[in-house]
Amino acid sequence: MTTITRPAGTVSVRVPAKINLQLSVGPLRADGYHDVVTVYHAVALFDEITVSAADRTSVEVTGEGVASVPLGPTNLAVKAAAALAKATGRRSRSVSGGSSGRGSSVGSSGRGAAGGSGRSSFRGSSAGGSGGSSPRGSTAVKIEIRKRIPVAAGLAGGSADAAATLVACNELWRTGLSPSELAEIAANLGSDVPFALAGGTAVGLGRGEQLTTALAAGSYDWVLAFGATGLATPDVYAACDRLRAARKSGDGVPAATPPELSTELMAALRTGDPAEVGPLLSNDLQPAALSLQPLLRRALAAGKEHGALGAVVSGSGPTCAFLASDADAASELAVGITGAGVCRAVVQVTGPAPGACLVDSGIAT
Ligand code: ATP
Known about the structure:
Strand content: 25-35%
Helix content: 25-40%
Structural class: alpha+beta
Number of strands: 13
Mean pLDDT: 86
Order of helices and strands: EEEHEEHHHEEEHHHEHHEEHEE
Radius of gyration: 21 Å
Shape: globular
Largest sheet: 9 strands, mixed
Bound molecules: adenosine-5'-triphosphate
Distance between the termini: 24 Å
Number of helices: 10
């Protein structure tokens, strides 16, 4: 038997990607945001975060898309650790300042300069303090992020890392916040962060952060097709607004209406039958994503040709999610989509997956 030994004061948390089974987007609000109604679904594609007590804060990222992950204080995992520290009254330690790369080099913007997959790291300014599990000690923490969730892919990978860091630091620092207290901090970090904590299948209102668990039966087999390049969420919302404005002035199409939950989709989810769910997948951001990456149209068509029960762009894209009737059909679908040459890579995953959860803790009890 192999025994994995973690150093004392080390906590690892696994956190899933999300797709959106429904994403309805309301009109642009005066404050620049949009109200949404969404049905989140967590899938078994996980990032893993390991945190440990350190003399100064550092972030190290390995795996999928590391070159696009910020390594300084704007990394959502760093923000999450700082938010938890602030909320629980631990001494705050700055993570701004210079960075020195370990592994691949770190650019002046704080982003790694490596290729699509590899290793990048950031070390913040030196900070004293013992860290570890002392009740009100230092907030300096070493954060290691192993990414499997592609970046800027509509899968909320950054939000997932934030959620995982909240859970990990809550354990490392023994701050003892309840799930609902963590969810409150999560909502301030980003719209998708509370769902990454919760997992499963859930309805999101407001900016998506007001969650209600959905009554969903069964499990679902999905194929995810990843785009060659990412899409920035603000760009996709802006394209959505432009398309809607053009329709309004050009052809009398009514303005975007307040979003509503699809009762048909909710009923289908209660049956647990993928054949019922597939045709009801919907995303108001899909036309905008297609306008920015026209190849996605071919990806969606390829999935349908190879037997997908439903095909939809996830969130702001460019990942396309295809629903299959079972695991064997998903395997065939994955082969068909790969053969069509319309995406960078495909993975086969199941959903719903659990939210951020502890996989390993070297904390003595
Ligand atoms: P959104 O959550 O805005 O819809 P997304 O799911 O499409 O976005 P993410 O992978 O969350 O995409 O990345 C969005 C941006 O967040 C990236 O471009 C990146 O610069 C930034 N980011 C900050 N921290 C992280 C992180 N830990 N992992 C990935 N991206 C991060």
